[in-house]
Structures are given as C-alpha cells and as structure tokens.
Write a structure and sequence with these properties.
Layout lengths: L10 E6 L23 E2 L2 E2 H10 L5 E6 L2 H10 L6 E4 L7 H11 L6 E6 L7 H11 L4 E6 L2 E9 L3 H6 L15 E5 L10 H12 L5
Parallel strand pairs: 1-4, 1-6, 4-5, 7-9
Antiparallel strand pairs: 2-3, 6-8, 7-8
C-alpha cells in the first residue's frame, strides 16, 4: 500500500513594508524623504533583503503590504521579480497592527495561516524561516526567539485572524495573540531591526562580514 503524501501547507508569506521610518529620517540623515523600505543596503533596497528570504521559503501565497501612493509604487518596483501580490495600507501611521490587518483582509480564503515578516529586518535567514514553518504546523501561533527576545517573523493560524482584526491600533503588532506561542530559537545576530542610520550602518557591516554579530 502506498503511503499518502502529506498535505501541502496552505500558508502565505507576508512582508510588512508600509512603515514610514521616521527615526531613519532624523535631522542630518542622508535619507530624508526616502521611505525606509527603499533605503539602500549592500547594493539593494532594504526591503529586498527580507523579501528574498521570505520568497525562498516557498509559501503558497506571497503578499507585501505597501504604503499608498508613489512610495508604494516604488516598493513594488523594488520587489519586482519575487512573485509578490500587494495590499495597500492606506494609513500606516496608525501603527504596525494596521499593516497586519491590511494583510489579513487581502489574503485569499482557504489558507491555513500566514507567516509575517518585517521589511526592516534584513538579516533574517532562510534557515530561520524554515525553522519557523516547522514549528508552525502544530501551533496556532509561533514566533522567533533571539536569545532573550521574541520578535518577528511570526506565524498566525487563520483561526486567529478574526481576533487580529478586532484588536485596537498598536505599534506592537498582534502581541495580545502571542501568549503561549511556540518559541523558535534563532541566531541572536539576526534580530537587528533597521530603524536608524546607525542600525543601517551596523547591518551593512554584518552583511559584508566586517562586523561579527
């Protein structure tokens, strides 16, 4: 008797790339007026690094949440060729959770859930994405743990989507849904969140191998 093949997980990989990046544009920054996802890092836009790792994780659907207007068009261009669908967050200033909601509202029906990654975390590796997806299969929620810190990428089962849509605006994302989430150990050096020119310089050094995590 031939053993039945395991069902293919029907999940989405979501890139949240609608942030304004106000701290990246502090006085004296060379990136004033440039949306944070488009800030150059190691020869490509910042958002492209996270987008590539997410794309190579082979999810059924790839979706990027982008800002409205010309900034959103520019982010789309930066992700060209990676197979993403797009959703616009019309009010990214309302906080990170508004981008989670825009994603969930745009995802096609019938999915098991989604992995959510941040466009300003360029060091997250494909290996980390694979480890997260392994933990996600039996879990309603799972998130990466970098040493003592839990942070994205994270997995949410579709059963949690209605609760996510009901949460109030917040910059902390769907933290209220992550109590008891599976914790996936990840290399602490991948945690870097590029919010400032200083963090951008650190990311460039790490990517070039001139700085050790």
């Amino acid at each position: 008797m031939t053993e039945a093949a395991a069902p293919v997980p029907r999940r989405a990989g979501v890139l949240l790339a609608a942030g304004r990046g106000t701290r990246m544009q502090d006085s004296g920054s060379p990136f004033a007026g440039l949306p944070k996802p488009l800030v150059p890092l190691a020869g490509k836009p910042l958002c492209r690094h996270a987008a590539e790792a997410l794309a190579y994780a082979s999810d059924l659907v790839r979706l990027a949440v982008v800002p409205p207007g010309q900034a959103g068009d520019a982010v789309r261009a930066a992700l060209d060729g990676l197979g993403y669908l797009y959703a616009v967050n019309p009010e990214p200033e309302r906080g990170l959770l508004s981008s989670f909601r825009a994603a969930v509202q745009a995802l096609p029906p019938g999915l098991d859930g989604a992995v959510f990654a941040l466009a300003d975390m360029p060091l997250v590796s494909l290996e980390t994405h694979r480890a997260l997806r392994t933990a996600a299969r039996p879990s309603l929620a799972a998130q990466c743990r970098y040493g003592a810190v839990s942070a994205p990428p994270l997995w949410l089962h579709a059963d949690l989507f209605p609760a996510l849509l009901a949460l109030p605006d917040a910059d902390s994302g769907p933290r209220a849904l992550l109590t008891g989430a599976a914790q996936v150990p990840c290399p602490p050096g991948e945690l870097l969140d590029v919010d400032t020119p200083q963090a951008l310089a650190q990311a460039a050094q790490l990517l070039s191998g001139t700085l050790t995590p």
